[in-house]
Amino acid sequence: MKKNLITAVLMTLVTTVLFGLAFPIVITGLAQVLFPRQANGELLTKNGRVVGSRWIGQSFSSLGYFHSRPSSAGTGYDATNSGGSNLGPTNQSLVARVQGDADRLQAENPGVAIPMDMLTSSGSGLDPHISPEAAEFQVPRIARERGVSEDVVREAVRQHTEARQFGFLGEPRVNVLVLNLTLDEISPKPVNR
Amino acid sequence: MTANGWLQIFFLLLVVLLITKPLGGFMARVFGRERTWLDPVMRPMERILYRLTGVDESHDMDWKEYALALLLFSGVSMILLYVLQRVQQWAWLPWNPQKLAGVPPALAFNTAASFTTNTNWQNYSPESTMSYLTQMVGLAYHNWVSAAAGMALAIAFIRGISRREQKTIGNFWVDLVRGTLWILAPLCLVGALLLVSQGVVQNLKPYDTVQVVDPYLTPQLGSDGKPVNGPDGKPLMQTVTQQVIAQGPTASQEIIKELGTNGGGFFNANSAHPFENPTPFTNFLEMFCILAIPSAFTYTLGKMTGSPRHGWAVWAAMALLFLAGVTTAYWAEARGNPLITSAALHSPQHSASALQASGNLEGKEVRFGVANSALFATVTTDTSCGAVNSMHDSFTPLGGMVPLINLMLSEVIFGGVGAGMYGMLVFVILSVFIAGLMVGRTPEYLGKKIEAYDVKMAMLVVLIFPLVILVLTAISVLYSFGTSAISNAGPHGFTQILYAFTSSVANNGSAFNGFSGNTPWYNTSLGIAMLLGRFMMILPMLAIAGNLAGKKQTPATLGTFPVTGPLFTVLLIGVVVIVGALTFFPALSLGPILEHLLMQAGKTF
Counting CB atoms within 10 angstroms of each CB, which of B123, B211, B378, B551 has the fewest? Predict the structure, then answer.
């Protein structure tokens, strides 16, 4: 008993140093040398200012920008407060939220089918992507607001559409923040709010 | 359901099948103390470790000493984790750039119990509660050792089966050290760097503050998290111009979180968070890491007991149960939620074509979609992992019932690292016993007679599990201190409580996450449930192992029930399902089954 207790204490201390300290520090060191951009969150800049991370979605409300999915992280895209809505399938609040969003989206683009991802909030609340269908749904609005042709906008969407990884993993997707930054380069027209 | 979805599901199963033999064979050599190609590096480190900790590697333990060593180690390391959480705010301790406060006692107890037992249930939001130091030295550390302890126990059980007329089942300290150095460490090193190369963050810097591209208005929140109303009674609005992005040493924790089937997220959203799981490839890698060691254990079992075909028969039972689960979950999620569909189409001017059908995407990420979310949910609950890449709370009732049933079958479908193996072996003993009853002769398992003592201990494991879950659930639904944690009304609320206790006793750690468990009742009761679920399973299991090791080898005869063919696989599946289903079916019909029927009838809560 006593011998095993002493070993238990010593083993806890030694393995803590090894796996709790040495391992993460070695990995941090290697990551910072080998993959410095990825290890620090792939921050994006615009006019020299850091405007976001490639992997962390943002809220867009101006009509001239592509909109992200609904978010339940904090008050929306709060990257210190990730999480989903956790609304159950029979929860009234879920049904009410979907109704509200569907009305708004139909008014924006009457008669066109609404992609499901625009009506549902993501698991992280920070989803950086929308589906290509959700981007296509928004193309007419963007073109109208920015005063450019739909084809120009559509071309930007096409450029930023990522296919399934290695041809079969995951789903096709469009990074909203990256697409919107490109949009600002194509048509730097000030966006009304 | 799409062809591409099925392709991904079968591809994962195929890759797991391919790794089973090489990894399982390697594990048999490591725990059998045979030579491996890693010896030149690891053997000197191993010797130094034993010298520092006073371990005599030639000493073999009987089952009682093995259990004692495990309990002492778990106790000491659990206390250390508790203390670390309580003092993380001390200024001289490093890596707390956000100046996070100390963790309150009840929550610190719950978390310490949670990570020591390989559960990783989280009653807190990591990015706003735990310092980098606590995450690395406290939480990620337990991911390593609780997994290694699970592997040690499974190996001890397998030794109990394969040894003849011996009192001992190995040395806990040696098994613990060899499991971490030879198996977990090399895989984690490679895996962590692969994750970083894809975009999983790994740094010790403070959270980044960025200027958002399109500032926007949101309601102002008070200190209680509720919107603040102005004098006119309308909510006060504020313009958001900045986004604060949580960072940290994520990859090094992410990899052991999956490989050790722990599941505790570095961030609140767990593997749904883009910094934990940015691409479909990281998603695949994480699922593969969850299944790799548990699947390999079936081969280790076959190899160490000299009956490889028995190992494969167990693997087949696991794979079939896995496919049954993922098929149901994928079907239910792809079918979607009729309430959302009709809500989107509610007003008359919407035509029936006004919605693109693509299943239930609430709580799911676009990059993973329905197929990978249903697959991940199945993988994480077949094993004792509990990491999530989508929110189980928002699954359709039947889709969410699959993870719940997986937990109720006590996670033996591949199962936790080690824990799945010894859990499944208890079911194997019961299967052999039932087969023996049917033909009226003393059951044998790989040459060992299964007698009253072994069956009693196996039944103890099978009975304690539902007893703890159902009693604590029943208490919680009767009193307001229990029902206050519910965030979804109706049958779904009952499921939230049932899921919490099932997940805790099964040492899984996934949740119906709307559930607010950070209360005195749940911190305590869930903490105790996790400790019972771990140690009250381990003790009878080690007792069986010790008892089996002492038995004589009985030669197989014509009357011996073979544990190698399809007949055995089917019987094993039957025992697992019937034991699980019979105990929990009444509870399931009050929760997800009722909710499914009400949802079909258009009822909301």
Answer: B211
